[in-house]
Specification:
This protein is mostly helical. The protein has 9 helices and no strands.
């Protein structure tokens, strides 16, 4: 078993980071109620597994935080959770076919809890995301701050992660068959020790 990352893995991680930063920038600029900052993390979770997805997510958060959205750095724990759990969901087949909505829900719940805690206690419910408008609306109608943040996080995280999983599925399925097979075989060798 190789212990160091090969060039292909480094390149894929770079692509994943670029997807995260680009998606986050689009959501940030348009003030969308979803985040689009984990598409690359989920892609790498699908192709390379949880360990590399965590690296991708954290690096994406740091790049976004240093360049255009300081809030992004504080949400690195969410990317760690997303990468790890999405990688496990792909490994066990929960993000394919009819199981996809359930698989997305399984990894949305922990990420939403972490996001809600960071948003509510660190930022008082207001971040750079368009979902802050939903939080404010719920607070205006009389919902407590913590509840409004948590409900908003669950709804927006689920939509965000579901869109990301669908986009990754469409992207991976659009790859030529020989490339998909080479990635799957490499993943099996690393994960299970077989060819």
């Amino acid at each position: 078993m190789k212990k160091s990352m090969d060039i292909r893995n480094i390149t894929l991680i770079g692509l994943g980071i670029a997807l995260n930063v680009t998606g986050a920038f689009i959501a940030f600029s348009l003030k969308l109620p979803i985040y689009l900052d984990s598409i690359g993390t989920i892609l790498i979770a699908c192709l390379l597994g949880p360990k590399y997805a965590v690296i991708t997510g954290v690096c994406g958060s740091l790049v976004s935080g240093f360049t255009f959205d300081i809030y992004s750095m504080y949400f690195a724990p969410v990317q760690i959770t997303t990468g790890f759990i999405a990688g496990m969901m792909y490994k066990h087949g929960f993000l394919n076919g009819k199981k996809t909505p359930l698989g997305v829900l399984i990894f949305t719940i922990p990420t939403s809890i972490i996001s809600a805690i960071i948003t509510a206690f660190l930022f008082g419910g207001i971040t750079s995301s368009g979902s802050s408008y939903i939080v404010q609306l719920l607070k205006v109608v009389g919902m407590p701050e913590i509840a409004s943040v948590f409900i908003t996080q669950i709804l927006t995280d689920y939509a965000d992660k579901f869109i990301a999983v669908v986009m990754v599925g469409l992207g991976v399925n659009a790859l030529p068959k020989n490339i998909r097979l080479s990635m799957t075989e490499g993943k099996q060798r690393r994960t299970y020790g077989k060819i």
